[in-house]
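Hi R.,

Here's the chain you asked about this morning:
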Amino acid sequence: MIKKYILPVILFCAAVFLAAQDNGSSFFDVPVSALEAKMFKQGDSVDVLLLITPTIKETGNKEQMVITVFQNLKVSYVSGEAVKLTLTREDAKKLEMYAKDEDTIALKIVLRNITDESTMPLAPASFANMFK
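And here is the predicted structure, written out as tokens:
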């Protein structure tokens, strides 16, 4: 029974991969829990958030911050423990750099409202500026 679904899934994945490569796009897998993976589906729009703990120059203290690094990206594919995003090759390089930075704690994606396609500059969120 399961065997009849394997070939269509492989063909679908190959088609998505080839379509992305044709227009100069790259894929980036964002690790998620199995429970979180159930929240996403192909075609969803998401924002990518980065939870970091940079050292503040003035005080020398570390402070947790959340930065929105990309807005309104499309989900290409969802597997059991990863959500595959399609973005430009340059943006994929940036996301890889962010994910591997020593100050990075977590890379998260959040669903957007299906009618919201807007993007806007967002200031980083931190405990220091949360209640201003």
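One quick note: Residues 1-5, 11-15 have pLDDT under 50 and may be disordered.

Cheers,
M.
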